[in-house]
Amino acid sequence: MSDIVVVAQTRPLRGKNEAKRLRARGRIPAVVYAPGKENVSVSVSPRELAVVFKTGAAENTLVDLEMDGKKRKVILKDYQVHPVRPEFLHADFYEVALDKPIQVKVHIELQGVPVGVKTHGGMLEFITREILVSCLPLDIPKKFVVDVSALEINGEVRVSALPMPPKVKALTDGDLLVAHVVTKHEEEAAAAPAEGAAVAAEPEVAKKGKAPTEADAAAAKAAPGKAAPAAAAGKDVKKDKK
To answer: Mind listing the pLDDT tens digit of every residue in the chain (242 residues)?
Structure first.
């Protein structure tokens, strides 16, 4: 069961000005979604939200969201952070029933150095980094760990080979390629632009940095006017939600 509690306060007002007022008081706007129910606008503490990320699988972590004296089982559905400062801007929660399956995306982690890379000079390509699964909320895997150390040149791992727990069902096509080892000249040929093709422009969408830690939140609160170093790129930044 979840031992992470985030206290949420309902907020009747919405909009950019209200979001600024909330952040000035050390809170951020959030929305709680639930099947068959109206969405609820709330505010939460960014420091409490940062605790969720200590689990290593924040977006699939079961959380007790305390509202009006009652606790709801939720998972973190989405979040936004400032593009420069390590600060949370917004969060979305999704209420779940412990006895009903839900669909979530689970990350894949590769471990080991393939034989084809270590002894034959090949290159490991990581193609699919997460898959969609269905399971009960308490059975959500934190991640799938795949040992690729035995892969030779042209060796591969597909979704069907992932270590799937008995209570978890993969919804992603089992034939989808997760990773493979190729020779370097194959990699270079694939990377070379076609003759006469225009060079792709830099993406216009800014990247969302990694989630701030509790220490980041405390530092930002202590010195709100001082910009912290940019966090490593993670997810795409979305427009601020109201």
So the answer is: 457 899 999 887 666 777 788 888 889 999 999 988 899 999 999 999 988 888 776 778 899 999 988 999 999 989 999 899 888 989 999 999 999 999 999 999 999 999 999 999 999 999 999 999 999 999 999 999 999 999 999 999 999 999 999 999 999 999 999 999 999 866 566 665 555 554 444 443 334 456 666 566 555 555 444 444 444 344 444 444 44
Pair 90, 118 in one domain: no
Q: What is the token pair recorded at 214?
A: 């509790």
| Helix-strand-coil split of the chain, %, nearest 5 | 20, 35, 45
Task: Read off the CATH number of the domain in which 126 is found.
Answer: 2.170.120.20
Quickly count helices (H) and strands (E) in the chain.
Answer: 5, 15
* pTM reported for the whole predicted model: 0.70
Pairing of strands 144-147, 102-111: parallel
Q: How many domains does the chain have?
A: 2
Q: What is the DSSP letter of 233?
A: E
Hunting for tokens 């969201």 — which residue is that?
Answer: 65
Instruction: Answer yes or no: is 199 within a domain.
Output: no
Q: End-to-end CA distance of the chain, in Å?
A: 31
Structural domain including 227 reads: 5-99+206-236
Q: Where are the beta strands (DSSP E) in the chain?
A: 5-10, 28-33, 40-44, 62-67, 70-81, 88-95, 102-111, 123-126, 130-135, 144-147, 156-158, 169-170, 177-182, 207-209, 233-236
